[in-house]
């Protein structure tokens, strides 16, 4: 058991390195209303993130019952440590799992074990719902809510290296200890305003496995191209499919296979042999021979011979013919977001507004809580049923007589 802290001694940081220790901590967590969590990982050299550290903290009131303290580090790199007790906690419905900006953390757990922490509370999303601005960072919330400084000096370190330094351990633990005060504040705010269902709508997207599945056959849709030629796009599709599959199977970054600029070059030149690949200006040397070269040539051939040609994506809707309406929608969004105390970007993006102005109606901005705050009036504005009026420093919605 860690030694008790004196006035000139910092509390010892406890790291769980055995399955039994982890099971004991998770059993305590199951008796609590919530547990705060975070991860540290590396992704520079792999396709899938490599989990290097997990941080967890129980509510402060549980400290007396938690051997060694209510906040711990969990070392997943220790041989023989099973994370199943943690995954069992993730499935435990009576304990809320609290993360900040949870998407990357959840992606790791989904790909490693096919499990999601449910119920989930994401403090970044909750902060946007509560009016703290767009994509608010953890450090900002620590300062504004927990009223504590935060040392970020260890942020960009190698979390796979052992042993961790004292600075690394302290930095990692701070990511979950301050999160307790942030969660309790934001949870109370959501209950007070009745906006907990708003957060639930956003969290549902994070808990949907589809959010974390990357299908090789769809990878081409993320490649930006200037040409809309169906045949060119067919080659892009097959090259992107090969690259994604190759990277996934070998767990390497897709850029290690070839980058997007090289992909576009290959789709334009359509090489037929390794001699043609040798002429590429952008292709990495290792990609000009061996498995990658064979895959490239097969992908180009498949694209050239494809009968199911992809259709070019429709142009961004909006600006030319609907500029006036799109601008009015921007004014309406700003007014509605300010009145509701919600980050505008959480309600609708600039492209969403252009799409609404062009007649699109199947958009998140027009459904759920967003419709209540903005979407219904956006549709009324587009239909000419309301107008906007400036009164002093405020924008008012004015009904238009039929």
From TrEMBL:
GO molecular function (one): nucleotide binding
InterPro entries membership: 3'-5'_exonuclease_dom, HRDC-like_sf, HRDC_dom, HRDC_dom_sf, RNase_D, RNase_D-like, RNaseH-like_sf, RNaseH_sf
Sequence ranges assigned to domain HRDC in this UniProt record: 229-310
Example GO biological process: tRNA 3'-end processing
Principal subcellular localisation of the protein: cytoplasm
Listed EC numbers: 3.1.13.5
SUPFAM superfamilies: HRDC-like, Ribonuclease H-like
Family under the similarity heading: Belongs to the RNase D family.
Protein name per Swiss-Prot or TrEMBL: Ribonuclease D
Species: Paracoccus pantotrophus (Thiosphaera pantotropha)
Lineage: Bacteria, Pseudomonadati, Pseudomonadota, Alphaproteobacteria, Rhodobacterales
């Amino acid at each position: 058991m860690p030694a008790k802290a004196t006035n000139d001694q910092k509390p010892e940081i406890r790291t769980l390195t055995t399955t039994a220790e982890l099971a004991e901590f998770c059993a305590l967590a199951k008796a609590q209303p919530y547990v705060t969590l975070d991860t540290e990982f590396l992704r520079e050299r792999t396709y899938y993130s490599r989990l290097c550290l997990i941080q967890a903290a129980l509510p402060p009131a549980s400290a007396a019952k938690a051997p060694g303290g209510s906040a711990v580090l969990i070392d997943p790199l220790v041989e023989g440590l099973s994370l199943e007790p943690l995954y069992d906690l993730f499935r435990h419905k009576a304990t809320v799992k609290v993360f900040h900006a949870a998407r990357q953390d959840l992606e790791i757990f989904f790909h490693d074990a096919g499990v999601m922490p449910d119920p989930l509370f994401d403090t970044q999303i909750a902060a946007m719902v509560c009016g703290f601005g767009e994509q608010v960072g953890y450090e900002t919330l620590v300062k504004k809510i927990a009223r504590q400084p935060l040392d970020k000096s260890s942020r960009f370190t190698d979390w796979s290296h052992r042993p961790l330094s004292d600075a690394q351990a302290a930095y990692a633990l701070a990511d979950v200890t301050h999160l307790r005060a942030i969660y309790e504040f934001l949870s109370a705010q959501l209950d007070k305003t009745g906006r907990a269902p708003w957060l639930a709508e956003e969290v549902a997207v994070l808990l949907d496995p589809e959010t974390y599945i990357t299908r090789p056959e769809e990878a081409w849709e993320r490649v930006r191209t200037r040409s809309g030629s169906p045949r060119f796009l067919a080659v892009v599709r097959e090259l992107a499919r090969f690259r994604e599959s190759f990277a996934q199977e070998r767990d390497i970054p897709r850029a290690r296979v070839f980058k997007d600029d090289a992909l576009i070059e290959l789709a334009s030149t359509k090489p037929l042999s390794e001699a043609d690949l040798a002429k590429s200006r952008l292709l990495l040397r290792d990609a000009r021979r061996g498995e990658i070269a064979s895959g490239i040539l097969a992908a180009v051939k498949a694209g050239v011979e494809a009968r199911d040609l992809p259709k070019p994506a429709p142009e961004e809707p909006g600006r030319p013919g609907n500029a006036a309406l799109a601008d009015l929608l921007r004014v309406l969004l700003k007014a509605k977001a300010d009145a509701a105390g919600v980050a505008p970007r959480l309600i609708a993006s600039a492209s969403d507004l252009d799409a609404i102005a062009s007649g699109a109606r199947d958009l998140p901005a027009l459904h759920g809580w967003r419709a209540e705050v903005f979407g219904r009036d956006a549709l009324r504005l587009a239909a000419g049923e309301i107008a906007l009026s400036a009164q002093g420093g405020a924008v008012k919605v004015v009904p238009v007589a039929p």
